[in-house]
Every structure is written in C-alpha cells, then in structure tokens.
Automatic annotation (TrEMBL):
Keyword presence, Transcription: no
UniProt cross-references to Pfam families, sorted A to Z: Thioredoxin_4
Family classification: Belongs to the thioredoxin family. DsbA subfamily.
Record's protein name: Disulfide bond formation protein DsbA
Species, as recorded: Nocardioides marmoriginsengisoli
Highest taxon of source: Bacteria
Gene Ontology molecular function: oxidoreductase activity
InterPro entries with a match to the protein in the record: Thioredoxin-like_fold (IPR012336), Thioredoxin-like_sf (IPR036249)
Transmembrane segments: 30-50
Residues annotated as domain Thioredoxin-like fold: 70-238
Length: 245
C-alpha cells in the first residue's frame, strides 16, 4: 500500500472516529435535556397538585367564619389574639393592608392563633360607590352565608376601582361580584335595591363610639394600633399574632 493510500485510510478512520464521537455527544445532550424536561414536568405537576389542594393558602374553607354585629368574624372565639379592622371598600390603604395581611391572618386564624373581625364602614362619602358596595355587603351578610360575606369582602378589594372613577362601577358590576361570592338569592337582590338605613346607622354609631376618623383603623385586643405607614401596621399585627398578644 502506498504512503498516499495509508494516509488516506488514516484520514478516513479519523473522520469516522470523530463522527462517532460527535454522535455520542449528541445522544448524551439529548439524554440530559430529556432528563431535565422530565424533572421539570414532575415539578410542574406537583405544583399543580399543591395549588389545587382545598387548604392551600388563601382558601377560606379551613377557617371558621361567623357573622358578627355588622361584621364578619374569621377564626375561633377562643383565639388568644383578637384583631378588629375598620375599613372602607373604596379606601386604597385598606386594600394595601388586605394585600399585606390576608394570607397571614387567614393561615393563623386556621391555626387558632387569631380571630379577625372585619368591620366595613362608609367613610368615603364623596362617591356613591363606597355606600353601594357596603349596602351590597350588608345584604349578603344578613341574607346569605358567612362564607359568602367573607368572599364578597375579599372580592371587593381584589376588584377595587380607582377613587376617581369609582362611580363608573355600576350596580350590575357589584351584583356580579355578589354572584361570584355565592351570595346571590332573592332576599339579597331585594335588599340591594334600597339602602339598609339601620345597618348604616349602626356602622356610623360604631365609628363614633370608637373614634374612627380614618381607614384602615386596626385594634389588637382592644388597643388601637398607630403607625406612620401600612407597613408599620402590618408589622405590629404580625408581631402580636406571633407573640400571642
């Protein structure tokens, strides 16, 4: 065999070896990618399963809910810490407080560590929305279930309009939230047609008795919290619940 032929054969063998190595590397990469996809798929599936759990955070099914005096109570009466929140459905600071404390308070209410009393009031009287939302909530509170009242409370904050455009929210829009909360029935629809003057008078008297001048106003075990920001209130609430007082 000539030198030229030997070199040609060596070149062909080298090319074949490189091709085989490249093929093995591709197969290895494919196997790695497939493995990653399987793991990711398992994580996603597990996450989907967890999120569908009936007692996932934010779900009220594991929390005791009851009707109070113009309020809705979340948690056991035997809880060592009592939190009372005076709020207006149109108040953006109330929504900020809700966003920051809801999951924490519901989880700890389910554990028996705190009872939360939500007391919506009509403080922002410059628009009709605050009163209309409160009247719908009162109708559900009196004529539907405690859970429906709590769900509607949550929905009003999750769908809170801007103050400047609040009156563009129609009664039909509010009625849709009532239905979504599970509070729609003949008695509720009838009650929503006129303002519940007795409920509003009682809420106004409660504001006077407690010296409520702004929202949100929060009491922990009968003592009003003070702070320069919503963050301060959140920290005080969490500390009180964590420490049992």
């Amino acid at each position: 065999m000539s030198k030229q032929n030997r070199e040609s054969n060596r070149a062909e063998k080298a090319a074949a070896i490189r091709a085989d190595q490249a093929r093995k590397e591709r197969n290895k990469r494919v196997a790695i990618v497939a493995g990653i996809l399987v793991v990711l798929g398992a994580i996603v599936a597990a996450g989907a399963w967890y999120s569908s759990d009936d007692t996932a955070p934010g779900d009220n099914s594991s929390v005791e809910v009851a009707i109070g005096d113009g309020s809705v109570l979340v948690g056991k009466t035997t809880a060592p810490v009592k939190v009372v929140v005076y709020e207006d459905f149109l108040c953006p600071y109330c929504r900020e407080l809700e966003d920051s404390t809801r999951e924490f308070l519901r989880e700890n209410a389910a554990k028996g560590k705190v009872q939360v009393e939500y007391r919506p009031i009509n403080l922002l009287t410059q628009t009709t929305y605050s009163a209309r939302a409160l009247n719908a909530w009162a109708a559900v509170l009196k004529n539907a279930s405690p859970n429906a009242a709590l769900k509607l409370h949550d929905l009003f904050y999750e769908n809170q309009p801007y103050e400047g455009s609040a009156d563009k929210t129609t009664d039909a829009d509010i009625a849709k939230l009532v239905t979504k909360a599970g509070g729609d029935n003949a008695a509720v629809r009838k009650a929503m047609k006129t303002q519940d003057t007795a409920f509003f008078a009682a809420a106004s008297q409660a504001m006077t008795d407690q010296g409520i001048q702004g929202t949100p106003t929060v009491f922990v075990d009968g003592k009003e919290l003070t702070g320069s920001s919503i963050g301060d209130l959140v920290s005080q609430i969490e500390n009180a619940v964590d420490n049992g007082s």
